[in-house]
Amino acid sequence: MDRTFSRSQELYDEAQRYMPAGVNSPVRAFRAVGGTPVYFREGRGSRLIDADGNEYIDFLASWGPLILGHCRSEVVKAVAEAASRGTSFGAPHEGEVRIAGLIREFFPSMEMMRLVNSGTEAVMSAIRAARGFTGRSGIVKFEGCYHGHSDFLLAKAGSGLMTFDSPDSAGVPVEATQMTSTLPYNDIGEFRHFMDEKGDQTAAVIVEPVAGNMGVVPPVNGFLEALREITEKHGALLIFDEVITGFRVAPGGMQQKAGIVPDLTVLGKIVGGGLPIGIYGGRKAIMELIAPMGPVYQAGTLSGNPVAVAAGIATLNMIKGAPDFYEKLDAKAGRLTEGISRILAERRIPHRINRVGSMFTVFFTDSDVTDYCSAKSADRERYAEFFHLVLEHGLYLPPSQFEAAFVSSAHNDDDIDSALERLKEAISHMSLH
Ligand SMILES: *Cc1c(COP(=O)(O)O)cnc(C)c1O
Description:
This protein has 433 residues and is of the alpha/beta class. The protein has helices at residues 6-18, 73-84, 94-106, 119-134, 160-163, 174-177, 188-198, 223-234, 253-258, 284-287, 306-321, 325-346, 372-376, 380-392, 413-427, and strands at residues 40-44, 47-50, 55-58, 112-116, 138-142, 180-183, 202-207, 237-241, 264-268, 278-282, 352-356, 359-363, 395-396, 405-406. Helix content is 38%, strand content 14%. The longest helix is centred in the last third of the chain and has 22 residues, at 325-346. Residues 118-120, 123, 146-148, 208, 212-213, 241, 243-244, 268, 278 line the site of pyridoxal-5'-phosphate.
């Protein structure tokens, strides 16, 4: 295929003069896969068009938010209408009440909530609420789980950090992470042992109930149940970071699918319908501590932004109104990943595909991927080769081995067939080292 990327190259050259590595978020810079990042001009349904006019079937979905695909007319209309009535009030408005009501319908555990502007901010605020409520400082997280870039959660986080092989960030004082303990994902014994020793100092245990930021890694049987049981026993709060999984694996997130009630939940990505949003919430007794009701401070100039809220409401209403929404997504994603696996197997390329509903990762490894350690066994060079070949053939996947890809409701059966044809052609060029 003859795709040229000259306009992307020009933009990238100029961008590097203004922004570190020419980007506003690290993984976008393609460092994990090499080459020039693609600059985009527009998205339509399941497709992306880059600055050179090349078209792609999009499986990045802006890292998850676009469960309806690009420019779904109902969402665009809601955004335009909201913007025409005012882009920000810095004061309460009806949209906030409506989206909160909708969220609580799907997430009954979120008895009360607050809207903020990003997943990072929501996690940071949820942790503060947990510490305020328990009067304790300790936080437990799991290796390879990413919870945004706040100081105290940048210990052994996945996502961009994993790509760059730097478990932590410069600029974070050791003191800031001293109260954070990082345990292996999916290891119930290790967790039980830790909590037996430190449970009474632990304010909260935060987890991605399906990990998405070391590539997709589902919880093993009993893991989430053990987190619930053991946190409760020690009076620590359980926080589900459902920024990816909320409205992705089920309308009520992984907590609905697993039948587990966390104390606090963090949402983002899909709930903003492609605009910036984050939401945290949970038990009333905890959320009543938030200022000005209680002593835990948290605020935001643009929080509850009417345009972002309108996009969120439109997206959630589309999901709510579509019969078999998740069954259909699941079937399409299943067909896609089975197809990819078949094509790779025909070429005898070792791989594992982890998939939960419409989120998946193709790992180039010959052992099962169940935690950070096994995820890291995947062959990044192989992924880089795969990524560039499929890019050349018109598929946009995450530019790192350790990220999730997504199927949206905008992908129809023809898109999946076409994606598989493009993949087959791309994979036929993979080296067999
Ligand atoms: C993306 C993500 C975040 C951070 O959200 P931002 O909006 O990027 O700040 C937090 N937790 C998880 C699980 C995420 O995937």
